Each structure stands twice: as structure tokens, then as C-alpha cells.
Prior knowledge:
The protein is α+β, with helices and mostly antiparallel strands and 178 residues long. 32% of the residues lie in helices and 21% in strands. The strands form three sheets. A three-stranded antiparallel β-sheet has the order 2-1-6, with no helix packed on it. Strands 3-4-5 form a three-stranded antiparallel β-sheet, with no helix packed on it. A three-stranded antiparallel β-sheet has the order 7-8-9, covered by helices on one side. Helix 3 (133-149) crosses helix 4 (156-177). It has four helices and nine strands, in the order βββββββββαααα. The protein folds into three domains: 11-61, no CATH class; 73-131, no CATH class; 134-177, no CATH class.
Amino acid sequence: MAKAQFHKNQRVYVKTVGTWALVDKVLPHWAKGIDEPLRIFYDVGLGRDFCAEELQGDNTEHTPVASTAEQWRLLRARNKWKSAEECSHHPYPGTHPHIVTGETDWGGWRVPGAEYDLYPERVEYQARLLVNAPKMAALLRTLVNQVKLEPEDVPVEVTALAQEATAILRYVDQEVQQ
């Protein structure tokens, strides 16, 4: 059984071609009666599908703050009820955001199409905010830990920010544990 090593829109180095590319599609190959795909190929826009052995991930995005257990992604789903022409006032006509919170491209947060149609800019902002929430939580944890290491060398304003960050993290972590 295979698991995806790369995700959509991830920057990868294509070893066999010698160039960098973005993963356009993750293409699992399924067999009848099996719960997981047999193998996974990746469409990177170079004319053929590549297997994971031919690709290498980009390590530049793995900073200490960005490396969290949660890797949420923003995907765009096609609008089923309106064509791109009917919703040309939307930031991305013909699509709406989906926040994917798991390894697969189907779990996560959705917004109803009617709500998106009323406030597309607001929903786009919320989607960007949601998809970056794990990174922001990691950033808050880093801030709190740095202030704990050297509390006497930190300005009063930063100490106040760390206290507020501690309260936010306490609330977030409490909700997760229930």
C-alpha cells in the first residue's frame, strides 16, 4: 500500500528532468477491494506522471515555526451551481475554497456555496486565516517559550504579548483535549 509523500501545490525537484516544479495533481492508483491505493503518481505539468522516487521535496519551507504536526492546505473546489461567468465578481470565479486538514484531499472545513456567494472576499480571508492557524499557533508557542527562557531581557510589551499568547494557547489546547 502507498501513501502520498507530496501534496498538491508543493514545490518538488524532479530528479529525472533536473528542474523544479509544483505538484498539480496527486494521482492514486486504486485496486478494487483495497482500502488504500497501490501506488501514487504525481502530475507536475511536465508531460508525464512521476513516481515519488523521481521527486525530491523542497526543504526551504521546513522552518522550525512552520513544522507543525498539522499541515493544513487551501484547495479550490469547482462551483457546482454557478458558472464562472455568473459569479465573475468573486475573487476566483467558478471556484470556492476548501480547507483540507488531513493527509487526503477530502477532509476538513467547507463553506456553503450560498454563504460564499454573499461574502466571497470575507470567506477567502477566513480560508487564508484558517489554513495558517497551525503555523500561527506554532509561532505563539515559540514566542511564549522565548519569553520563558529569558524573561528579564524581554521588553514589557513583548511580555504582555506572551501572556496573551499563553491564554490563547491554553484555550486552544483545552478545546482539543475535550
